[in-house]
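Customer escalation, tier 2.

The customer says the design service returned an amino acid string that "doesn't look like it belongs to this structure." They asked us to rerun it and document both sides in this ticket. The original structure tokens are below, unchanged.
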């Protein structure tokens, strides 16, 4: 019996080890992934240490310095590298602080949707029956509504805020996790190590936590990485529409909204924030593609 226990519990470990070794191999031969990872590290560092990096208070208004161009243009104001907006606020400082909100919303909403979706997927795939039918029909109903429209409808009812936005995006993004996790659990529940764990008396909870969840690491990492980018774009879209983060908090989407009326006279307000969104989401997507290739079982054999 001791031998069977060891076999049952050891099946979950090679997945994580293979994933890490696969990531190291992919980074050695994938130069685009290296660049993307470098961009992500830069964005994280900038967001975490924004108060130390930003040259100015992002909300400090200087009306006498409004709409000053970037440093390479004539008429620029020294100390404002990327120019100022319609209220004389430093564009660079607002982009730096905006990274905090984008990362916070993207990561927190992804974690929330991941926890909810994984729990629903594991329960649906393991127990099946009426639980599976109820959860999967709820997923079908939610898929019938575009995520951004569903988020708009909810936020229009409640007062916008950072944590409300995280809650709304998190609870509208669980479907992808639930469907993938359910499919994986359906294939894992009849595997030998799960049968052995059940035979030695492990409870359903122990089987889910000790044997099923560790084997879901690869797909969860892939989905989570790609969904962070989707959440960042969703936050920017809602902030652009004025239904996301309050205007007093600098966000990339809010800067896009502020700069849309000045695209001809002060293009830098919208362009630089748009570039920040594009580079961040592109870096996340490239990293997610790498993780998806690594998570492919065929990749482990290379």
């Amino acid at each position: 019996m001791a031998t069977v226990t060891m076999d049952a519990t050891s099946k979950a470990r090679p997945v994580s080890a293979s994933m890490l070794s696969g990531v190291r191999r992919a980074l050695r031969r994938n130069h685009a992934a290296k660049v993307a990872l470098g961009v992500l590290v830069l964005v994280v560092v900038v967001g975490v240490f924004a108060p130390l990096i930003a040259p100015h208070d992002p909300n400090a208004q200087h009306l006498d310095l409004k709409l000053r161009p970037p440093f390479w243009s004539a008429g620029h104001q020294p100390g404002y590298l990327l120019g100022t907006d319609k209220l004389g606020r430093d564009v660079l400082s607002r982009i730096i602080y905006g990274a905090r909100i984008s990362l916070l919303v993207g990561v927190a909403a992804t974690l929330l949707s991941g926890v909810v979706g994984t729990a629903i997927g594991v329960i649906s795939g393991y127990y099946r029956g009426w639980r599976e039918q109820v959860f999967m029909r709820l997923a079908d109903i939610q898929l019938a509504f575009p995520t951004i429209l569903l988020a708009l409808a909810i936020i229009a009812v409640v007062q916008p805020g950072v944590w409300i936005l995280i809650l709304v995006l998190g609870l509208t993004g669980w479907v992808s996790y639930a469907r993938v996790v359910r499919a994986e659990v359906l294939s894992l529940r009849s595997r030998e190590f799960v049968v052995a764990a059940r035979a030695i008396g492990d409870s359903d909870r122990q089987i889910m936590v000790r044997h099923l969840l560790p084997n879901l690491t690869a797909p969860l990492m892939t989905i989570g990485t790609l969904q962070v980018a989707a959440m960042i774009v969703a936050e920017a879209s809602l902030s652009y529409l004025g239904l996301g983060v309050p205007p007093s908090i600098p966000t990339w989407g809010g800067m896009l909204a502020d700069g849309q009326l000045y695209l001809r006279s002060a293009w830098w307000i919208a362009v630089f924030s748009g570039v920040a969104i594009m580079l961040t989401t592109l870096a996340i997507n490239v990293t997610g593609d790498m993780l998806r290739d690594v998570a492919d079982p065929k990749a482990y054999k290379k």
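Tier 2 assessment: The sequence is consistent with the input. The chain has 15 helices and no strands. The two ends are 35 Å apart (CA to CA). Sent an explanation to the customer and offered a walkthrough call.
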